[in-house]
Specification:
By secondary structure, this protein is mainly alpha-helical. Helix content is about 50%, strand content about 5%.
């Protein structure tokens, strides 16, 4: 009886081992196939991006293109990105080499990568716009000078 009991336990352990081995193989196969699917989906997305960029470049200048509006929007966003990059580089104290596009400290006169002379942006003074008051505005005030009211029809400035 003890022998049968041990034999039975041995068979159960063997069956469990085979089941675990089968499940491990199944999980491994699932992981491999999932990885392949993800890699293929990423490749498709990259191809879409290449195709989209080619379409943009081909259709960008054509006003009659059905994609002209989207092309203009992309161009505007790209211009905005370039302006933001310039602002970021100014804050970081970096200039971009026009020759090799390397980012170099603004303190340098020459590019450390290609040796080209760096063109440093000229800092433009910030213009403060003068506020011009139209002297033809109608201002009504009480005797104490309080509660002045600007006639909105004659004013160039919206009433807030």
């Amino acid at each position: 009886m003890a022998m049968d009991f041990l034999k039975n336990i041995g068979e159960k352990v063997s069956e469990t081992g085979k089941a675990v081995g089968g499940k491990t193989k199944q999980v491994s196969e699932i992981a491999k196939i999932t990885y392949k699917i993800t890699a293929e989906e990423k490749a498709v997305e990259e191809l879409y991006a290449i195709l989209g960029k080619a379409c943009y470049e081909a259709e960008n200048a054509k006003a009659e293109s059905p994609y002209f509006g989207q092309c203009e929007e992309i161009s505007a966003k790209m211009d905005g990105i370039e302006e933001l990059k310039k602002q970021l580089n100014t804050i970081k104290g970096i200039v971009v080499c026009e020759n090799c596009k390397a980012e170099i400290s603004a303190e340098n006169d020459f590019c450390g990568k290609c040796g080209a002379k760096l063109v440093k942006p000229v800092e433009e003074p910030v213009a403060v716009e003068d506020v011009v008051v139209d002297h033809e505005e109608t201002v009504e005030a009480d005797a104490c000078g309080a509660d002045a009211v600007i006639d909105e029809e004659k004013s160039d400035y919206p009433n807030k």
